Amino acid sequence: MSASGLGILVWVAMVVGWYVIRYPFERRAKRGKVAITRRGGPETLRMLVSFSGLGLVPGLYAATGFPAFADYSPLTIQIALGIGLAILALVLFRLTHKALGKMWSVSLDLREEHKLVTSGIYRRVRHPMYSAFWTMALAQAFLMPNWIAGLAGLVGFGTLFFLRVGPEEAMMRSAFGEDYDRYCERTARILPGIY
Fold first, then answer.
1. Which N-terminal stretch is annotated as signal sequence (predicted)?
2. CA torsion 80→83→89→95, rounded to 10°?
């Protein structure tokens, strides 16, 4: 198998792994009652842009090879780094879902009797789910030997992140007040000790 083929295969496996991790939480979330939500047009648009970059564009490339004009020959080390990042992304996804448990939601929602999660992977990072998605987008950039499909995840998820993290933190601050402020003082947003 070529390095390009291996990269695409690992990307597909990463997406399948992500879905396997998320599926039981999605099912449970549909049964839970939402107390506060920030869903609506802007959130739907952010989610669509992110899904396009992390799912539609690379999925189209994996299935059809389009857009072939942006292909390049990847280095073996590039694919190896992509594999490592894909594994790290899935580990982070699992840890965040496990820590959130019933508090997990796909969108900007707070459940009835929602609790501020500050343990596990959330002890040092406020948004480790975003850390996982950034890692997944980086893995995609290394694994997809195509300038458009490879970088689409960074653009798509980056758009969601920078337009969503502020409203999400405002919602949490409104719900949890000083507890959330103190939590923010001792944690980083997505990368411990850096940002």
1. none
2. -110
Range of the domain at 151: 3-186
Going residue by residue through the chain, which has 195 residues, state the pLDDT in tens, using 9 for 90 and above: 899 999 999 999 999 999 999 999 888 877 777 777 778 889 999 999 999 999 999 999 999 999 999 999 999 999 999 999 999 999 999 999 999 888 888 777 787 788 899 999 999 999 999 999 999 999 999 999 999 999 999 999 999 999 999 999 999 999 999 999 999 999 999 999 899
pTM of the model: 0.94
- Structural domains in the chain (count): 1
Helices (H) and strands (E) in the chain, counts: 6, 2
**CATH number of residue 77's parent domain:** 1.20.120.1630
